[in-house]
Amino acid sequence: MLGKIRQVKPGEAGLLRSIRLALVKENPRTFGILYETERRKPLKYFEDDIKKFSGSDSAIFFLEINGQIVGMAKVGRYDKKDLRTGYLSSMGVLKKYQGQGWGEKLLAFRLEWIRKNTKFKRVLMIIVDGNERMTKLAHKHGFSMISRGSFYRIPNTKFELKL
Ligand SMILES: CC(C)(COP(=O)(O)OP(=O)(O)OC[C@H]1O[C@@H](n2cnc3c(N)ncnc32)[C@H](O)[C@@H]1OP(=O)(O)O)[C@@H](O)C(=O)NCCC(=O)NCCS
């Protein structure tokens, strides 16, 4: 299968909305949001999201296989005021394409991008408890657990990678 990871371009809010909705539909618990809630967000929300994630240390990436967008992931700051701490979020690969190494590539690609493009000294990631695949990926790339929390009463764990 011919696949690539690339940065979202301005004007691709429609594509971003489609992949995000498909991923939320498949994994509402993981993303902590209901499909119906996400579906009500106007296109403008996704246009703004693309703008928000197009700074020198933030980006949205698409996973494109045979011309179709089948996954995505974001890089940003964990806290707007903290220039040294990155945050990996909104990662997902459509079920049909899972288990083929794309998730691992989406993670590795972003870490490489961060090392090249940002001044981050560490990167954080929050994983819902029980998400074994993502947890395995995090450990494999050197992340370690730093704290526990919850979002809408769903327990999660914060992972950190020192760069
Ligand atoms: C997490 C996710 C992005 C991983 O993507 P993926 O393309 O399936 O991942 P990969 O194929 O690279 O596999 C990653 C690891 O999971 C393992 N894995 C693959 N399929 C599996 C399965 N059916 N059951 C358990 N583990 C599996 C792989 O063996 C691999 O580990 P390894 O390198 O030790 O072999 C994807 O499953 C997904 O989108 N899940 C729903 C959304 C989500 O959880 N996002 C993360 C939010 S923090």
Automatic annotation (TrEMBL):
SUPFAM superfamilies tied to this protein = Acyl-CoA N-acyltransferases (Nat)
InterPro entries cross-referenced by the UniProt entry: Acyl_CoA_acyltransferase (IPR016181), GNAT_dom (IPR000182)
GO MF annotations in UniProt: acyltransferase activity, transferring groups other than amino-acyl groups
Q: Which domain of life is it from?
A: Bacteria
Signal sequence, renumbered to the chain = none
Which stretches make up the N-acetyltransferase domain? 17-163
Pfam families membership: Acetyltransf_1 (PF00583)
Annotated protein name in UniProt: N-acetyltransferase domain-containing protein
